[in-house]
Fold:
Amino acid sequence: MTSTLCRLIDIAPPPQTLSAAAEWAPVEAALHRELPPDYKELVDSYGSGAFCGLLVATDVRKRYDIVEFNDGRSDFAAEIWEEEEDEKPHEFSADNGYELIAWAKTIDSDTLNWLAHADQKPEAWRTLLVSQDLAEAWEHHDAPAATVLLGLLTGEITSDIVTPDLSTVTFQPYTT
Structure:
């Protein structure tokens, strides 16, 4: 278990029992890539649910399922950013081969994403926070998913896009 996950468990304990175990092989096959180990460890420890309004994208409820939610998402983002030349992450310039994969979402429909590239190992993917309106705002974070999540929940990372309610840091599991 990583030190990041240990810290997260200390501030927001996972449920005693998980509603459904994650089956990673079909998820990774559908996304055509392996997912970062810290994210899989996070979901394996907590299951599907929300941290202070940040919805972890692997869920038994289809509207937050990571595969379904990401179907066509990167192409849509690239189209929006093509029109907004000055307002896009540089990774999407001249089709540099990056894909945007959302791994969590807020109640306001802002997303926490990986900037995934086929030439990079998943643990090297950067995190991109993106506002509901893709062209409106985005923020880079050079850290893995669990580290960014922990930073947002402890206040060590501040964001103008993702602002969880830190009055009580908890994890609320989804039920089937």
